[in-house]
């Protein structure tokens, strides 16, 4: 299981607002056939699942702003792929909480 952080920024849209683009990206995540979980944050979206599935999903997400009129898109991806044990978004957060409040 891998965790991917993705930030997709449409450029040259004529407005500084990106909320509608973000909503369209989330719609694609909601309809994904892959076995994924996602969490929207104020600055990016975190997705967990099998790496091949995540990369396929991110590829589709990158296309969303283009499909909605953007002429340029900047997508940043961070991949956390730990293979010695299964990790999830929830497990990673719990690990830190356990250290903060033993």
Automatic annotation (TrEMBL):
Organism: Paenibacillus cellulosilyticus
InterPro entries per record: MTH1187/YkoF-like, Thiamine_BP, UPF0045_domain
Domain Thiamine-binding protein stretches: 4-97
Superkingdom to which the source organism belongs: Bacteria
Region Disordered: start-end pairs: 82-102
PANTHER family on file: UPF0045 PROTEIN ECM15 (PTHR33777)
Name under which the protein is recorded: Uncharacterized protein (TIGR00106 family)
Record's GO cellular component terms: cytosol
Family under the similarity heading: Belongs to the UPF0045 family.
Gene3D superfamilies: 3.30.70.930
Pfam families in the record: Thiamine_BP (PF01910)
């Amino acid at each position: 299981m891998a965790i991917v952080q993705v930030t997709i920024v449409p450029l040259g849209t004529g407005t500084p607002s990106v909320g509608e683009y973000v909503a369209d990206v989330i719609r694609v995540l909601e309809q994904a056939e892959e076995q994924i979980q996602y969490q929207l944050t104020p600055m990016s979206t975190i997705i967990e699942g099998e790496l091949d599935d995540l990369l396929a999903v991110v590829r589709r997400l990158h296309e969303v702003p283009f499909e909605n009129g953007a002429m340029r898109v900047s997508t940043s991806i961070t991949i956390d792929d730990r293979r010695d044990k299964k990790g999830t978004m929830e497990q990673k957060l719990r690990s830190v909480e356990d250290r903060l409040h033993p």
